[in-house]
Amino acid sequence: MKEQLLKYIPSLLICLSPLPAMAQEQIEEEATSYRAEIAGSLSSGNYTPFWMASNRYGVVPLEANNAYLKAGVFHRQHFGKGFRWSVGLDLVAAVPRYKNVYIHQLYAELGYKWIKLSIGSKERYQSMVDPFLSSGDMILSNNARPIPEVNLSVPEYTTIPRTKGWLQVKGNFSVGKSIDTGYLDEFYSDRYTLIKDVLWHHKALSFQIKDTEGGFPLSATVGAQHIAQWGGTSTDPKIGEQPHSFVDFLRIVVGSRGGSNASASDQVNVLGSHHISFDFSLAYAASDWSVKGYYQHLCYDKSGTEFRNGTDGLWGIQLDFPKFQWMNRIVFEYITTRNQSGPFHYIWFDRENHPGRGGGGDNYYNNEEYVTGNSYFNRGVGSPLILSPEYNENRMPGFLNNRIRDWHLGVQGKLSPQVSYRMKLTVMNLWGTATRPSLHKQKGVSLMANIQYVHPKLKGWRFSGAIGADTGDVFGKKSTGFELKVAKSGIISRYK
Q1: Lowest CB count within 10 Å: 274, 407, 428, 436, which one?
Q2: Among 385, 381, 304, which Cα is nearest to 339's?
Q3: Residue 86: beta bridge partners?
């Protein structure tokens, strides 16, 4: 981070205080349920084809020729007037994998009407982009494992009183902690100075303008997200613990510079590592089709919040045809991160004698102190198209290809009441980073096709198969693969 973000992180993001007379969150069935799935894949290359492993909450191993078993039990129940609670436990056994068996989800939640408090590791998807067809949210996607956290949220768009149903709001505020220290020790073998036990902070606030009481076809959303890494302990004893007091937490929340116990860089710039997105969408809904355009503007510092980094971010359009089951949803996206406010960060050496904007050298997802970047268990927590450190040759930390220009297509539909499909195709172009550019542009195409079958007499069973392929030189060499998966879900006991 280069400049203070205090003026550019809206203070409203931390205000999730009660708003009276709001609509309740969508009510789910009161029950104790279970879910289990077993899957295996074979691939010709060194890695599982990109879209067979990405945006699956880090469950599928990156290494080729793998298998996993995932099983969980979940409980959800209401009590009193407007209260509800839920708990969940989800285990994963996978090979090849550091620690073949691990807890994937373990959480407890308490909700009252439209607000929810959640503690633990949970697959919390909060993005405006489609979780199954999109390339992924630029700030917090479903690519990495769930980070253990305390999360206070208004998870669904909720009508603000006295707006005649026209204005809705949702958001969240969370603090979490990485528990990947053992993995980092094994992966990097003390070859780099790392910060372990990293703390996380994420918040989001989004407003929707929509006629919920009538039939006006246009709607729009505007919002912002902020994610930050802070705290932790360096493997270099001369550096030691990073600032992590409550005052330091407040500095992280508002994006201000560190105190006297912070590094020299964080005292001049901003404490910790921060990324922000400004999220916009405009939608039109007809009787038998709808269209939504959206844009996520990615920011690393002040120059980004002032849109000095050009069009960097995710541009997308989503088409829905609910009555045309053969192809009921299409997503097309363009992702670019090449501007980064220029290749160099100017005026970093003498601010008093050389005042001005500075900016430049944003180096998305990377940070000089938090060298593993915006990753958890080496999977990027943002867009998987900025390739995760897990792909790096020679096991180097950080994101080595954060200057990209990609085109992405996702399609889904039903071939019959029992058979559905999903396809993804992405054209990738990578140029390394501004400080370590590629000698030649890396390019390739990644694709995946998935078919799912549900037998009408086998309640709760799902059978699916997928084929994937990576071409070009993005992943070292071409690769093809296929996956087979069997899943079963059901109700153990109902309470209503």
Answers
A1: 436
A2: 304
A3: 76, 109
Strands (E), 80-198: 83-95, 101-112, 115-121, 149-159, 167-177, 195-196
Cα separation, 88 vs 287, whole angstroms: 38
Q: Exposure of 265 by Cβ count < 10 A (0-12 exposed, 13-18 middle, 19+ buried)?
A: middle
Residue 24 is predicted with a pLDDT of 34
Q: Which of 401, 394, 360 is nearest to 380 (CA)?
A: 401
Predicted structure pTM score: 0.89
Q: Is the pLDDT of residue 23 over 60?
A: no
How many Cβ atoms are within 10 Å of 324's Cβ, its own excluded? Answer: 13
Instruction: From 73, 80, 64, 125, select the one nearest 104 (Cα to Cα).
Output: 73
Beta bridge partners of 421: 413, 451
Please tell me the number of Cα atoms within 13 Å of 284 on its side-chain side.
4
Return the beta strands (E) in 186-289 as ranges: 195-196, 199-209, 218-230, 233-234, 273-285
DSSP strand pairing (218-230 vs 479-494): unpaired
| CA angle (347, 353, 354) in 5-degree steps | 30
In 3-state terms, what secondary structure has residue 67?
A: strand
Which residue reads 């405006």 in tokens?
A: 128
185: left (phi over 0), alpha (psi -120 to 50) or beta: alpha
Q: Is 15 helix (H, G, I), strand (E, B) or coil?
A: coil
**Buried/exposed code over 168-206 (b: 16+ C-beta within 10 A; e: otherwise):** bbbbbbbbbebbbeebbeebbeeeeebbbbbbbbbbbbb
Q: How far is the C-alpha of 425 from the C-alpha of 398, rounded, in Å?
A: 26
Residue 447's identity, in one-letter code, is L
Least confident of 57-71, 79-93, 124-138, 338-352: 338-352
Q: Write phi, then psi, for 289 (nearest 5 degrees).
A: -165, 165
Which residues are CB-neighbours of 274 under 8 A, at least 6 positions away?
1, 5, 226, 227, 228, 252, 255, 300, 301
d(CA 207, CA 326): 33
| Amino acid type, 306 | E
